[in-house]
Structures are given as C-alpha cells and as structure tokens.
Design a protein that fits this description.
362 residues, alpha/beta, Dehydroquinate synthase-like, alpha domain, 2 domains, two-stranded antiparallel ribbon, globular
C-alpha cells in the first residue's frame, strides 16, 4: 500500500484559544474579515482588544455564499487600502472564511474580474500577490479552516467557481468552541450536517486513504452522536467542544479527499432552490449511501463502523437521524420533481466532485 496525506495548517484547539491570536500573528498587522453580527456579539471588540494597533482594518459586510455581485468592489477596495498588510484573520463560518480566501489573492491589475477569469479556466495559477490567512471558525462544520478551497458564486449567471491554490491553505486554524456557544439552532444543524457530509463523502471517495479514513469515521460517528444532544442543550460547553472537534476531524479528512456526489448535487440545489449549503449537501446522504454500499468491501467495512456494524440498516438509520434534526431526505420536500431529481443526480455524477464518488467508476 502507498498513499499521500498532506495538511500544512497549524491547528490550535481549545476553549479560550482565541486568546492565542496575538502570538500567532507574531507582530504582523492584520485585516479582520467577519460577519455583520460579529459586532453585536462582542466579537469585534474582543479582536480589537487582543490585537490593538495590529488590527489594520475590518471587513464585515460579507453575505452567505459569497457572490461576485459584492465581492468585486470589496476585493478591489481591500487591495487598494491594505496592500501592505501581511495577514487576513477570518472569524466566522464558511462564508467568512471563503470570503477571506477570495480577498487574500491579489491580481496584477488590481481588478476582481481578472481573478474570476482565472478561476473560470478551471486551471491552477500562481497568484500575482497573496496574503497569509489565519482562520477562526465560529461554526462547527465548514472545514474551511483546514482546507485550501473557497466557493465563489455567480448567481446571476448560475455559476460557481472553486478557488483552490497552494497559497490558499490557511497558515493557522484557531478552533475555540466557546465562540460557538451562541449559535442559533438553524446554524448548528446546517453546519453540523455539513461536517457529517464531509466525513461520509470522504469515506465513499476514490481519493480516500488510511489517514483520511481515521478522521472521517471518527467525525461521522461523533456528529451523529453529538448533534441531537447539542440541540437539546445548545449552551452546553462540553457538547460544543465535541462538535467542534468532530467538525475539525471531518475537515482534516476531506482536505485530502475532496467531497463527492452529495456535494455535487448540492450546488444546483443552492443555486436554483436557495437551499442552505449544509442542508443541500446532506439531505441526499441516505440516497448516496445506498448507492455506495456493495461497491467496495473496504469502504463497506468503514461505513459499517460508522453505523455500529449494521450496514443494511444504515440508510434507514441515516434518514431517521436527519429527520430527528428537522431535515427531510426527499427531493420532493424541496420542490424538486422526480424527473428533475433524476436529471440532477445524473448530471452531478459527471461533475468534478461527482467523479470522486466510488460509484462513478461503474
């Protein structure tokens, strides 16, 4: 057997670990990229207190699923005002960290449309200039703090772009479960199911390896065990810590495998039907699990481990789990006809992420 596993991100995990941010910056100046509610939650004041004069600026006008419609002006202003600042600190969920990754990559012209044109080629490129990134997730699920990918949307044209460069790996991830205590139930569910999808998609994946498997199996089991309990006790610090660690493990798994069929389906569900990412990438998991079973004995053994050894009952158990946290697993529940769903799945199977699914080899 031979395999490769790589993840260059330095991880600092634990309650109160946000206090380590000045040590991580080590005298560098930084721009904070965060979500609009961070001010009211006291997060911005806390970062100001930690960084003092090292805080060069704040970008807090981000929106869910970062779109070219507002990224263009933000990106160009960012590089005009902060060209000499070395570091970006992203504090928030996946949208905040994805936005930070889009901002950290500068273009020769200084224009954002040059970056979009490079992304549209689908090929790797060397950025003209780039800043380092420190990622501080406030949700348990995105995995963006330990991966190089960012999704940039163009809803007007019905497109999505994937930013993925060697330079867009975060330098450091600071995972502080205390920052997640105030998450509303809806975000707790969406981010938790995103983590579950990352874990399962890493198992039924052509790029899986023994190290990603260790992280993926542990993450899937921990999300299934922890998420319902967390919804019952959302302010329970130990449960938040367990969920944060499970999501981190899922991120470390798919940082090497990438995602697969469920995520490939999710992009159209988000673009056309407005489904939040965490729901869009998880409601099809029982269906994809059924397709995965029986293809590869090694993958079957790992999936059986996730579901306590009963692989035959796993799709039903996974459906019941989703229903227990308020998520339907049928396309029809989201306004998608049977004919449209068949087309969507077939098209997703041919997508870049869909081809990572072990069933795509058939």
């Amino acid at each position: 057997m031979s395999f490769r596993y790589q993840n260059p991100v330095s991880i600092r995990y634990g309650a109160g670990s946000i206090a380590e941010l000045p040590a991580v910056l080590a005298g560098r100046r930084a721009v904070l990229v965060t979500f609009p509610e961070a001010e009211d939650l006291g997060l911005v004041a806390r970062i100001r207190g930690l960084l003092g004069t090292a805080l060069a600026g704040i970008e807090d006008r981000i929106e869910p699923n970062p779109d070219v419609s507002y990224l263009a002006a933000m990106h160009e202003r960012f590089w005009s005002e902060h060209a000499d600042c070395e570091t970006v600190v992203a504090v928030g969920g996946g949208s905040a960290i994805d936005t930070a990754k889009a901002l950290m990559v500068g273009t020769a012209s200084g224009r954002f449309d040059e970056l979009v044109a490079l992304l549209a080629t689908g090929s790797m490129f060397k950025p003209h200039r780039v800043k380092s990134l420190i990622a501080v997730p406030t949700t348990s699920g995105t995995g963006s703090e330990v991966t190089p990918w960012a999704t940039i949307w163009n809803r007007a044209d019905g497109k999505k772009y994937s930013l993925h460069l060697p330079q867009t790996w975060p330098e450091t991830a600071i995972v502080d479960p205390e920052l997640m205590l105030t998450l509303p139930d809806s975000i707790t569910v969406q981010s938790g199911l995103d983590a579950l999808s990352h874990a399962l998609e890493s198992i039924w994946n052509v790029n899986a390896n023994p190290i990603s498997d260790i992280f993926a199996v542990a993450a899937a089991r921990e999300v299934i065990a922890t998420l319902p309990a967390l919804l019952d006790k959302p302010m329970d610090a130990p449960l938040r810590a367990q969920m944060a660690l499970a999501a981190l493990k899922a991120g470390l798994a798919f940082s090497n495998t990438k995602t697969a069929l469920a995520h490939s389906i999710s992009y159209e569900m988000t673009l056309r039907f407005g489904l939040p990412h965490g729901i869009a990438c998880s409601f099809t998991l029982p269906m994809v699990l059924e397709r995965a079973i029986g293809i590869d004995a090694g993958r079957d053994a790992l999936l059986a481990t996730v579901f306590d050894g009963d692989l035959a009952a796993a799709p039903r158990r996974l459906t019941a789990f989703l229903e227990s946290v308020g998520v339907e697993s049928d396309f029809g529940a989201y306004g998608v006809s049977e004919e449209d769903s068949r087309r969507m799945v077939a098209q997703a199977m041919e997508g870049v992420r869909g081809r990572n699914f072990i069933g795509a080899r058939r």
